Each structure stands twice: as structure tokens, then as C-alpha cells.
Amino acid sequence: MSGMGRMGTLHAWESFGDGVAPDLQAVAKGLGGGYVSIGAMLMNHRVASGLRQGSGFMKHGHTYQSHPIACAGALAVQKVLKEENLLENARNMGAVLESQLRDQLMGPNSKAKPYVFDIRGGGMFWGVEFEVPEEAKKKMVAKFGPNAQFAALLNTKCFDNGMIVMAFSGGSNLEGTKGDHLLLAPAYNLTPEQVGEIVRLTVKSVEEVIADIEN
Fold it and tell me: DSSP string spanning 50-73?
């Protein structure tokens, strides 16, 4: 989910700028841009040379490997990424998205601030982490039942407001024990106007869920 341009670099590991690269890497999803089903494995020169100088053969196989139509579709997608400068756009619009999310969800005037623990990500891949205050959590359980989850309420609210998102309950913190989070992964050709609409709907949905819990 984080590779093939999603982070604003072709491969997610390139976003960190520390010069560390994997020996082996699996790629899929963004490789075909949703137009074709395809996955691939990349290897560095050291691994490839080891194979060539050894048996000269890598024992592997998939039913549809090297499918010409899938490969042609993936190549077309990669050409569009380059020709339309979509990686640069992902980085630029990602910075705008982060700024607006932080301002409107974590700023001093934000109604959502007590619930928002962190916002992090890169490019077109951002997560908003929530930690429901204890008193609000009691109200949520009393109103929506013992299995009530902030993420589930937010998922439904976003959909009702016209935006499809992925929201998950539990496991957002380093220990994997608590925290709900919202995943935003817009298209690489996102425009400034669309950034504003995503932020508007996100803030609106979060505030409405909070109001539903507290009122």
C-alpha cells in the first residue's frame, strides 16, 4: 500500500533519505494502478549476481507470471507516473494535506484536538490517530453499546458525508494496544481544491462523531 509512488517516491524506503535499500523487494497494487492485477519481485545487483554466478536459476513460479497484458498495463501506468510528474505532485499535495489536517484537527481552535493523538505519513498516504478521552469513552459505550468503536463510527460518518475512507480500531500505538486511526490515500493527481474538500469532509465527519458521542 505504501509503494510505487504512494509516499511521493517510487518506493517507500526512498522517502526516508538514509541511503538504506532492501536486497529484495515485493511490489504490487500501485504497479498496475488498479488497471491490471500484477505483482513483481525486485532484487539488487548483489543478489542477482549471486544467482548468475551460482546456479544461474531462481526456482520460483506463478500461474500467470510474465503475463503480457498485465506487464503492458503496468508499463503504461509507470509511463504516466513519469510523464505527468505524479510523484512530485504527490509530494507537493501531501505537504498541503498534512498542513491543513494539522491546522484543522490539532490547531488551538479545533474541536477535535482532545481526540487527535497524532497525524503522520507522507505523499498520498496519511494517517490520523485518535485517542478517545476516558469520559467520552464512557459516554460512547453508554450510547452505542459495549462494542462501540470510534473508528467504526467515523467510517460510517465519512461514508454518509460522501467520502470513502479506511478507519480501524485498536493497535495504532507502538505497542499495538490502543488507538483508533483513519487512513487517507487519495489519487496521485490530487489537486489543491480536492485537498481542501478531503480536509473539509474529514474535519466535518470527526466533529460530527464527537458531537454524537458527547451530546
Answer: HHHHTTS------TTTT-HHHHHH
Q: Which of residues 53, 83, 113 is at a domain's end?
A: 83
Rounded-to-integer distance, Cα 210 and Cα 207, Å: 5
Residue 51: alpha-carbon gap to chain centroid: 35
Euclidean distance between the first and the last CA atom of the chain, given in angstroms as a whole number: 37
Q: Which of 8, 3, 83, 72 is nearest to 35 (CA)?
A: 72
Structural domain boundaries, residue 62:
12-83
Tell me: pLDDT of 10 over 80. yes
pTM summary value: 0.89
Look at residue 170 in the predicted model and tell me its pLDDT: 74
The CATH number given to whatever domain includes residue 125 is 3.90.1150.10
Number of domains in the chain: 2
Give the least confident one: 49-63, 93-107, 116-130.
49-63
